[in-house]
Specification:
7 helices; mainly alpha
């Protein structure tokens, strides 16, 4: 009988231990789900502003500087001095290339903003990666809104040229290229979002 009681005691302890581990595990799962949900909401809430497009909050330009010029490639995220979610050197490059077209800047800055999200996530899992992919897809489709579809071959050529311009500025070294590839290893299937553009392009100058 004593041996039987000892067995029951150990069985009880094992069951209790398993229950405690299950509770702790479940707490971590729920916290992870909460963090993911909050991060996904933050991703979809991050939008380009009109001030960004009009250059009212441009980061400093160091084009002519010989000293004190920051190293934009020192880290993977780079520098975002004006805190608008777009890497400063990419933002400045877009303004330099398209100084007279607010529409072009709008679509390219939105695309750059989406690409920067790939390296700015505090939570990287299927949920957040899918949300970023949706924003990138939406931004890519937005670019098509400024290109004529009368000649589809030309449409594809021009839109690809715009996305390539931003991508080459954004993913401009091997480390960033590898980070981007690793990021999308978590990607699952997803549906496209509505409202392709953050801003109403009809209200912007060509």
């Amino acid at each position: 009988m004593t041996i039987f009681k000892k067995i029951l005691k150990w069985v009880g302890l094992v069951i209790l231990g398993a229950y405690v581990l299950l509770v702790v595990y479940r707490m971590f799962v729920l916290q992870g789900e909460k963090n993911t949900s909050e991060q996904v909401a933050k991703i979809h809430a991050t939008k380009l502003t009109l001030d960004d497009v009009m250059g009212k909050n441009l980061p400093p330009s160091y084009a002519e500087a010989t000293e004190g010029k920051p190293d934009y490639d020192a880290t993977v995220p780079g520098i975002d001095e004006n805190k608008n979610g777009i890497r400063d050197d990419v933002e400045l490059a877009i303004f330099k290339e398209y100084p007279n077209s607010a529409k072009t800047r709008a679509v390219l800055l939105q695309y750059a903003l989406a690409l920067q999200m790939e390296v700015s996530q505090t939570v990287v899992n299927k949920g957040t990666v899918t949300a970023v992919a949706q924003e990138r897809s939406r931004a890519s489709l937005c670019i098509g809104n400024i290109v004529s579809r009368s000649d589809m071959q030309n449409f594809i050529k021009v839109t690809d040229g715009y996305t390539d311009f931003v991508t080459k500025k954004q993913v401009n070294n091997q480390e960033r290229d590898q980070i981007q590839k690793s990021f999308y290893e978590h990607l699952g299937s997803y549906s496209s979002l509505e409202n392709e553009c953050d801003l109403d392009l009809s209200k912007l100058s060509n």
